[in-house]
Amino acid sequence: MVDTARKFLIAGAFLMPMLTFRVAGHQTATTNTGLTLSDVCFFISAIFLGASVRRKKIAPTPVWHLGTLFVVVGGLTASYFAISPISSITVVARMIFVLTVWQWTIRHLLSDERWLKYALTAYVFGCSASGLVAILQLKAHVLISWGGLVNGRSFGLTHHPDDTGSFLALGLVIAVGLALHLGGGRAWWRVACIALIAIGLIFSGSVSGMLCGLIGCFVLLARRGVNVGKLIAVGVVLVGIYIGGTALQGNGTGGKSLNPIARFQAATGPESGGGNSVTPRIGTIKAAWDGVVASPIFGHGLDVESSLVYLDRNVDVQYPTHNLILMGWYQGGLFFLVGELICIGVGLRRLMRRGVRNAYVDMIFGGAVAVLVFSMQAPTMFDRYFWFPFVLATTFPAVTRAAARVSGRTFASPRPALTAASAGVSGSTD
Fold first, then answer.
1. pLDDT tens digits for 121-140?
2. CA-derived radius of gyration, the chain
3. Are 91 and 381 in contact (CB under 8 A)?
4. CA–CA separation, 344 vs 302, rounded Å?
5. pLDDT tens across 22-59, in order?
6. How far, in Å, CA of 194 to CA of 212, rounded?
């Protein structure tokens, strides 16, 4: 049962960047209905794990559960004021799944370094597949129905380029981390995965995705303390991918350049140019703050209709708040926001805690920084890519303790709970 659950979990990690593939409903730039294949795999994994009588015991995470309780209370309260209360309650259910069922499954199944490596590798493969599809969409004009192709920006296996940017930014950090930790050698595919993900990022035209991916990689390299030679090697690879990806991308409609620097200029340029994405983001933040002032405690509802705060008159499209903190506060109210921040804090605390450092902690920390920075200018709530690093963080220090037992190492720690586990219990409490 446990082995089967673990296989479905790893399959779910592989499918996570592929939002296009759903068993019901659909996803567009403004709507998101039905279950992805990744969700289905995670559900099945949880069912098999729950049916097992031989799963290992793990210590609870009471602070994380306290944060989840705040999220649920705040979300249900906000649903009373929502335009569509039923849809708002559905979002609460999605949050419960991510913060309880998904977290519980991952903590049970990925508390060993070997399986954590497999899950991270599966996610990198999924991102590489999305990057490859993005390349084929733009250069061969095939598989466009699997995502999209608009103004020279290919969507890969999502229906919005910023979704592609968010998944691939995290994938880039993890791919670089795995390559640094496990090396290249005969596993040439690790470098190929980095190339496919980075080029997919360039082809998506997601400026924020590209920047956040680079920020996450920089944090990873700083945490790993890599030597100058490896730093130069990583820099040469990324610069080479940038030059090659930009050359491969070519020009867009009307000969307009689509390289990352040109995309940055368009995103921050005049609104009349049609490519400005900074002004609408600022508009959503200002509108959301006004809504927070109007109802700071109870929020306005978690449904899509209640989330729309800003109308971009240039394209006649309404947008939700593009900021994690203000989105949670505006839609879910103060309790919902506090719950989110508690769970994020638990994850960061485990990743930054002394005595549990290893290569996987460092790459997940770099990924957490990347998705946090990305979430400051994107609509983020129950998105799997965002919560993935923080949920993985709750598997520590169980992973590092298991690795220490295998290698004979010990980890210094200011807290006894990190150096000695209770009999038959893995993990630790927060």
1. 999 999 999 999 999 998 88
2. 21
3. yes
4. 19
5. 886 655 555 556 789 999 999 999 999 999 887 878 88
6. 15
More confident residue, 352 or 120: 120
Three-class SS state of 319: strand
Reported as a pLDDT band with limits 50, 70 and 90, residue 413 is: very low
∠ CA 301-304-310, nearest 5°, is 95
Which CA distances in Å does 204 have to 14, 126, 337?
Answer: 20, 16, 30
Q: Give dist(CA 380, CA 372) in Å, integer.
A: 10
- Residue 102: partners with Cβ closer than 8 Å, 6 or more residues away: 42, 46, 384, 387, 391
Q: Where are the alpha helices (H) located in 183-227, listed in sequence order? A: 189-204, 207-224
Residue 79 — very low, low, confident or very high, per pLDDT cuts 50/70/90? very high
Q: How far apart are alpha carbons 230 and 240 in whole angstroms?
A: 15
Residue type, 211: L
Whole-number pLDDT of residue 55: 80
| Separation in Å, CA 403 to CA 11, 181, 265 | 24, 14, 46
CB 164 within 8 A of CB 147: yes
Torsion sign, CA atoms 119, 235, 131, 161: positive
Residues 8-18 as b/e (b if ≥16 CB within 10 A, e otherwise) read: bbbbbbbbbbb
